[in-house]
Amino acid sequence: MIPGRGGDPDDTRWCFAQVKGVVEVNVTEADIISTVEFNSTGELLATGDKGGRVVVFQREQESKNQPHRRGEYNVYSTFQSHEPEFDYLKSLEIEEKINKIRWLPQHNAAYFLLSTNDKTVKLWKISERDRRPEGYNLKDEEGRIRDPATITTLRVPVLRPMDLMVEATARRIFSNAHTYHINSISVNSDYETFMSTDDLRINLWNLEITNKSFNIVDIKPANMEELTEVITAAEFHPNQCNTFVYSSSKGSIRLCDMRAAALCDNHSKFFEEPEDPSNRSFFSEIISSISDVKFSHSGRYLMTRDYLTVKVWDLNMESKPLETYQVHDYLRSKLCSLYENDCIFDKFECVWNGSDSVIMTGSYNNFFRMFDRNTKRDVTLEASRENSKPRAILKPRKVCVGGKRRKDEISVDSLDFSKKILHTAWHPSENIIAVAATNNLYIFQDKVN
Amino acid sequence: MECAVDAQSLISISLRKIHNSRTQRGGIKLHKNLLVSYVLRNARQLYMSEKYAEIYRMQQYEEVMTVCNEIQELDPLDLAEDGEGCCISSAGGEPASLCCALHPAASPPTPVQAAPGCAALHGEEACKEQDFYRSCCAEPYPLPSCDFSPPGAHCNKTTVLDLDTHVVTTVENGYLHQDCCAPPQPCCQGAPVLAKKRKADFAYYAEELPDFVQCKKARSDDFPCPTSEQLDSSSISNLISIFGSGFTELVNRQADFEQSLNGQFCSKQVLASLGAWTRAIVAF
């Protein structure tokens, strides 16, 4: 099987590879992973957590001695990206939780990523240092300044090897541009600009300029009492640098062309599926709110996630989605309880595989689901410590909806709603996935024969 | 995992969420509060439509009673004949059975027979269970008007105040449900239903409706009434039972409503204060 190509998820057998994070009974809130992202080559994997930390893993070079072990991901760099802040003017605390991380393409030896909390986006440079200069003229080895009068000879400093050190430095800080909470960032394919999105506005930035940004979408009504929808996610088109989409809490997606106008309040395309009146309930508005939107790698399709489904849209067809996949429809009758315990507000993300043939999203009880778009088959897998033996094959799980429960099935009422998989990532070219389960990061890969 | 998908509990849960969000770390989450407000709106719409349906039925009852009174006033002899006629033909017609139950028919129907609505609707067990049914089947025949009722008698008076037009509607009804079951006596004599409509200054009625005012003040503080009031539902339930089938669910809801009261709503005046209720919700 060609890595990265889709294929039947039934044929693809997923194995446990690694798990990062500690096992603890009471999870520290700060350790809860809030975002996961591979870089464009898949060499690096970054996670952000609620405590404002970023941990970057790097894949080991594959070893010829152990061909069955594909490169493992090991910690490469850890740094504190954001700290809690206090807005004194509004008497509001600003959470340090990392909402999103996006990698920039690599130009040189250093790696760059954007990370954001509710209010501020930061550009981080992660670089290696394995040499240091020695032999300064004006400084001694401890760094103390020497009296120039004592210098009798001159020498050229040389670089000597040292232990590898990975350091992260904040190169740009993009702040004070958002009144509401930032929910998305997206790097443009021109690699010069990026956008940041909050509940009501989208701003366009130049990566080099931090004191200015351009507002390109503004849906704030003149009278806030007339507010009916908010922006929930936004993303640039992977190839067309003038095109982006944003999703709303009403379940619609708007595609905008920045060439049309400076302010893209008027969309070029509007994607929405009419609501099925037979499914109407108190919670219809909540479950139709889109929590994530992702372009396919090809740029031809869009994927959206709402509370119960994942939908694939063709950019050329606005009236309805191309495909709709039920993630956990058995929750439809439990919406009232899920409203009471706030689970109905959980924002699940969704991802494409490298060839856009399989899509993946998370669910409860540490389950995650994969849907093969070609064969229409789907599979439910679980991220748990019980299946954590190296190269252990993950067994498909099944939720029993009603009637007799078979031996391996789990009933809806036994699901653990505190164990939710909101964030997942798929390697850009291989069948390696990273799944964030609360404070643990699981890495699975397909079985190598 | 089951919870009561009922408008009132959803409203209180939603209000609690909005209140809690004010103290959450990170500031008010606009998206979440917007979604909660949608649930609030949906629950309120259902709640209001149910209440309006009740009022509508109450008004229908009043109209029916007015017609009955007019019929009675015309000619007692004619009425007796009509009454028999209508008793016989009242297989499914609620107003007809109401009329014949109310006025002095020549042949007093037995309790069971004369209460097609009451008995058919709830069955004898239900008759025994609930208070007003107990009074329906057991207690002696009541006096026609609340004003003349002996102390301790089960007298019900419902007052509806429309905040927008300041129209006060008072429905004094004795034991209409009893009329179903007990041997009929001249219950219509004292015109048991007095539909008094009068324009009134709200302040004038402040003393008459102390609970209502208290409730309204509490609501304006963005929180429901702290004190719980027993809903005097028997008056409304009486009306509903007379109209027979189709109202079982509404009556059950009334019972649930009473049970689920936990100080969240001043239920006695909820019916009367629809306008204020709307405004209280809209304030969010």
From TrEMBL, chain A:
Keywords: Repeat, WD repeat
GO CC annotation: protein phosphatase type 2A complex
GO molecular function: protein phosphatase regulator activity
Protein name: Serine/threonine-protein phosphatase 2A 55 kDa regulatory subunit B
Gene3D superfamilies, per the entry: YVTN repeat-like/Quinoprotein amine dehydrogenase
Family label: Belongs to the phosphatase 2A regulatory subunit B family.
InterPro entries tied to this protein: PP2A_PR55, PP2A_PR55_CS, WD40/YVTN_repeat-like_dom_sf, WD40_repeat_dom_sf, WD40_rpt
Subunit architecture: PP2A consists of a common heterodimeric core enzyme, composed of a 36 kDa catalytic subunit (subunit C) and a 65 kDa constant regulatory subunit (PR65 or subunit A), that associates with a variety of regulatory subunits.
